[in-house]
Amino acid sequence: MSETLPPISLTEDERDCYQEITNVAMGQAADRLARLLNVYVILPIPNVNVIEINEFQMTLKAIDDTSSVSAVCQGFIGAGIAGEALLIFNDSSFADIATLLDYQGELDQHGELEVLMDVANVLNGACIQGIGEQLDIDFNQTHPMVLGQHCKISDLINSQEAKWQRTLAIEINYTIEDKNVNCDLLLLFTEDSVRHMNRLISFLLDD
Amino acid sequence: MSNPGLEMDEFHWLMDILQTVDIGLVVLDRQYTIKLWNSFMENHSGLRPDQAKEKNLFELFPEVEEDWFRKKAETVFLLKTRAFTISDQRPYLFYFKNNHPITGRADFMYQNSTIIPLNSADGSTHHICLIIYDVTQAAINKVDLAKTRSALIKLSNANK
Fold first, then answer.
1. Is A11 helix (H, G, I), strand (E, B) or coil?
2. Domain covering A10-206 in this structure, CATH number
3. B37-56 pLDDT per residue, tens
4. Phi, psi angle pair for B55, to nearest 5°
5. Half-sphere exposure at residue A131, Cβ-oriented, CA atoms within 13 angstroms
6. How close does chain A come to B78, measured CA to CA in Å?
7. Least confident residue range of A3-12, A68-77, A126-135
8. Of A173, A170, A171, A194, which is closest to residue A182 (Cα–Cα)?
9. Among A206, B9, B36, B125, who pairs with B27 as Cys (CB 3.0-4.6 Å)?
10. CATH: 3.30.450.20, 3.30.70.1560, 3.30.470.10, 1.20.1330.10. Which one for B24-158?
11. Do residue A32 and residue B82 have CB atoms under 8 angstroms apart?
12. Is B11 near chain A, with CB under 8 Å?
């Protein structure tokens, strides 16, 4: 059935609307992270794009192609909208974020996983909840899954085996003032979710 | 029109379901006192609700590492977002026996957990719910896969 539908696209207004919704959600997420860590979190403007599967690898590479990264993904679903939150963490950020989180143990692979999960819990949770609140949806969240530790970003996802054609990608880059902490949160929505969300935000756009 | 009889029925159904689902449910207050203990927890721990309720979680289950768990739970109280732990971080929170004592190969139950905030009527969070999932099968498969993979790598290197 979905094959008969035209590919999704965004009007300028719709893109602005998604950007605004994300702005509010990530503002809440940053506020939570700031309260937890007692730091100033720098917020950029989120990047909203509909991307084809063959562009996805390029999007990932554009985030970071040189250093090694660790990543976790977490699915969310509710009211006809489904997607995944992908948190990509630059491996050089671990030392600083562990200090901020007051992590006592040794920062080996296991220690890094703890840190990664703690950051993912706060950022993913706050963003997904924040977007949900604005659309009046109570999302279900799955358990996070480790996509890889210390790998190249292009190895994270095998696009040859992917089942999707295009996705709405919202990219948020978090950095912390005066600290070497750099992580990217990618919110990826499935095509049918976007059709549904476009309907939901059309009510917001009308006012 | 709401039907009080049906609402009562629904409440009983929900209670039945709560006691039957294969998921552990524990409600804790700010001091980590156990306030709710469902049958999953009862059956796997061997402690009846009256033995577990109003007891401190860390005193009753020394295997739950206090510092580690507090850190996760405090963010839930503070930020009102859910927190997740996966068995890759630590295999279990509660030391429960494997669900397949005869055919299974694991010594204990691997667990994922979710901690959710429970909001009071005034919006404040004084309680959290700890949800325990049995992920033994998936965890064992993952270990097996890693073993097979390294065996294959060894084989292919030997053939070079």
1. coil
2. 3.40.1550.10
3. 999 999 999 999 999 999 99
4. -100, 155
5. 31
6. 8
7. A3-12
8. A173
9. B36
10. 3.30.450.20
11. no
12. no
